[in-house]
Automatic annotation (TrEMBL):
Membrane protein topology class: Multi-pass membrane protein
Highest taxon of the lineage: Bacteria
Principal location class: membrane
Source organism of this protein record: Colwellia hornerae
Localisation per UniProt entry: Membrane
Protein's name according to its UniProt entry: Sodium-dependent transporter
Length: 445
């Protein structure tokens, strides 16, 4: 077993790390792209609903399991199913671990694009125009350079342990990201065309909200954005002292994450229409051209229109995004790393390098077969694997773990009346809701 386990020193340390995991490219690249592709307001409406009804309870369940077990996700799920199905628990943990690796395999590629764009603006500022142009255009060579660079950067930080550097960094830099977002939103909303985007984003077309494709995309996006279903939040929960008020913590993380996604939508969707007004081809048949890639055209275009200041804003913005991506990859990496350390007795350093090497191989595979694999891996992870894991967490917390008595015991101890209602919600309603969505996924596929 392990030496001493890592731990967060305070509640706020946990919230910052968990929010750092949740807030990332999913909020600023994923959410606006999906919203623009799925009717804007209707998507936002369903997203908020799914977040509240399913993703928040799943986040609670995931943190709760880790916190009770004080072990890595594979061991935690095994223990949670001890009395009934220990092997099923163990394999569910391993499937989550594979999900974390899948996430890392494509996420590091997109994070590499962010790094490249940050450098592109910076080199332009220095007058190195040809380098800057090369950096701004998506290519296999650029992927081959920046994906490994990002993985290396992450590994260098993780192998030193999570607490010291990254926690303090994110506490300082994430507010800066928010300030930049607000500044950019104010700028963009004053440009011609913005009001069309604003209307599309904020006024839902309710005839669309029952569209199964939209519901599934919103659910996948909500699960991805809150980092649930791959064990990352479970590990973080296990690094926190047992018995904290997990409900409140889960609500804070969800609120922060959802707020940033909402703000990113407020920037990007109007920006798409401003760009269209300026003559750029953005939509064809109501679908974004070039899917998410387009954001990398629209944003730099927007920054360019601001002159030299724009270049500084651009390099800072993409740099902050790279950092947001880094704090997100840390929680995913921590899943296999904690498993290798605790169950396979590897040192943190060895475990980190081993995991990074496997991630590197996986991402290289994705780069080599980009058209075939990239979208597929994202879809399988967000619409199948993450929801399935969450279904399992609900079953564990509601039914398997001392047959669901833990939450009731806690309620009795603390004299809280609403906890049994919450327990029953997790036990009956959540699995049912998720299963209904799942049947739709199966039918649509
Ligand atoms: N939530 C992160 C984002 O929105 C991505 C993530 C998914 C991180 C799963 C960890 C685990 O960018």
């Amino acid at each position: 077993m392990t030496q001493t386990r890592d731990s967060f020193h305070s509640r706020i340390g946990f919230v910052l790390a968990a929010a750092g995991s949740a807030i990332g490219l999913g909020n600023i690249w994923g959410f606006p792209t999906q919203a623009a592709n799925n009717g804007g307001g209707a998507f936002l409406f369903v997203y908020l609903l799914v977040t509240l009804l399913l993703a928040l309870p799943a986040l609670y369940a995931e943190i709760y399991i880790g916190n009770q077990a004080q072990k890595n996700p594979v061991a935690a799920l095994k223990e949670a199913c001890q009395d009934t199905l220990p092997n099923v628990g163990k394999y569910a943990g391993i499937i989550g671990l594979c999900g974390a690796m899948m996430m890392l395999s494509f996420y590091t590629i997109v994070a590499g694009w962010m790094l490249a764009h940050a450098l592109s603006a910076f080199t332009e500022l220095l007058g190195l125009t040809s380098i800057s142009q090369w950096l701004a255009i998506s290519s296999t060579e650029r992927n081959l350079l920046f994906t490994p660079l990002f993985i290396l950067l992450g590994a260098a930080i993780i192998h030193q342990g999570v607490n010291a550097g990254i926690e303090k960094w994110s506490a300082r830099l994430m507010p800066l990201l928010l300030v930049m977002l607000i500044g950019l939103i104010i700028y963009i909303l004053r440009q011609p065309g913005a009001e069309k985007g604003l209307a599309l984003y904020l006024i839902p077309d309710f005839s669309q909200v029952t569209n199964p494709k939209l519901i599934i995309s919103a659910m996948g996006q909500a699960f991805f954005s809150l980092s649930i279903g791959v064990g990352g939040m479970m590990v973080y929960g296990s690094y926190m002292q047992k018995g904290k008020d997990i409900g409140k913590l889960a609500i804070s993380i969800t609120a922060l994450d959802t707020f940033i996604a909402f703000m990113a939508g407020l920037l990007i969707i109007p920006a798409l229409f401003v760009a269209q007004e300026a003559g750029l081809e953005v939509f064809s048949n109501n679908e974004l051209i070039g899917e998410g890639q387009l954001i990398f055209k629209i944003l730099p275009e927007l920054f360019n229109s601001m002159g030299n200041v724009g270049l500084i804003v651009s390099s800072c913005f993409f740099l902050l995004l790279s950092i947001a991506a880094l704090t997100s990859t840390i929680s995913s990496t921590e899943v296999p790393v904690s498993y290798l350390m605790e169950d396979k007795n590897l040192t943190r350093s060895r475990a980190t390098w081993l995991v990074s090497f496997v991630v590197l191989c996986a991402s290289m595979l994705l780069i080599a077969f980009f058209d075939e694999l990239f979208g597929l891996v994202i879809r399988v992870l967000t619409t199948i694997l993450q929801p399935l894991s969450c279904l399992f967490y609900f079953i564990v917390v509601g039914w398997l773990w001392n047959r669901g008595n833990k939450l009731r015991d806690k309620a009795l101890q603390e004299g809280r009346k609403w906890l049994p209602i919450w327990g029953n919600y997790l036990r009956f309603v959540c699995p049912l809701l998720l299963s209904v969505v799942f049947v739709n996924v199966a039918i649509l596929n």
